What does this fold into?
Amino acid sequence: MRETRLTAHDFILPLFVSEKLKSRRNIASMPGVSQLALADLPEEAGQAQALGLQAILLFGIPRHKDEEATGAYDDGGIVQEAIRAIKAACPDLVVVTDVCLCEYMSHGHCGVTRRDGNHFHVLNDESVELLAKTALSHAAAGADLVAPSDMMDGRIGAIRQTLDANGFKQTGIISYAAKFASAFYGPFREAAESPPQFGDRRTYQMDSANAMEALREAALDVQEGADIIMVKPALPYLDILWRIRERFEQPTAVYHVSGEYAMVKAAAEKGIFEERAAVLEIMTSLKRAGADFIVTYWARELAKWLSS
Ligand code: PBG
It folds into this structure.
């Protein structure tokens, strides 16, 4: 009678790769998650595939940051090298790349900014141009799908056009269609070394109070050519996930984010509840609410638990 069943194919494993590291480094706020060095990737990817996972989501941490995010679209950049390393080791593993500028900008914002005294503005169209360049360089390095997480307006259309015009019609787009400005991204900013140096992200990420706006954002991304639409964070936004899945009938993903992960880890470590049972319940809820794919830092453990 069970209506919802989890399989290893439901999960996408995020991997952080740092240009500054010679070997892996644990992320304090996310027990079990680490930043990897380029040299760790073949083994890491092989292990993910051996566990039955189909896809990984790559984040890069560059050595050098500047005000134009040049590391993001450098053909020899950390993500571009990482894609090549993974594809050389595991050609069948689906490589999804995060397309954003925040890790590459010295100020940590997801786009190009202009400061006027104490106020700052994110310049939408200038940012979209750099994002499209970034997506193209990921596709050229071998990414199967690109996942823009910046929340600028019009970036899905611009990326689709740029990819098509350069012969990457087959490269897919997962759009973070409804990405809310959230307290639950806290630990990620340590993992990706991308905290904003001034201001916050509320001018481009969504207000958690808005559901209709999420539907409008998703409609635009679908219209502009997104193949998969994503909602983020996960548990506090199950209603949004459900509505988007019902309305658009498109493959829909959800990102169970760093703070959601850290929260369960902390409770489990204190013996408040059992980790495995809690995680399986959460993931089942996400799938029941309409997620076709779930990005989660537990992807490896889930693959193990589900096969035993
Ligand atoms: C930004 C980005 C963020 C996450 C993924 N991409 C952080 C943010 O928007 O501040 C968060 C993921 C997580 O918390 O696990 N490029």
Notes: The mean pLDDT is 95. Residues 98, 100, 102, 110, 149, 185, 188, 201, 257-258 surround PBG (CB under 6 Å). The longest strand covers residues 11-18. The domain at 8-307 is CATH 3.20.20.70 (TIM Barrel).
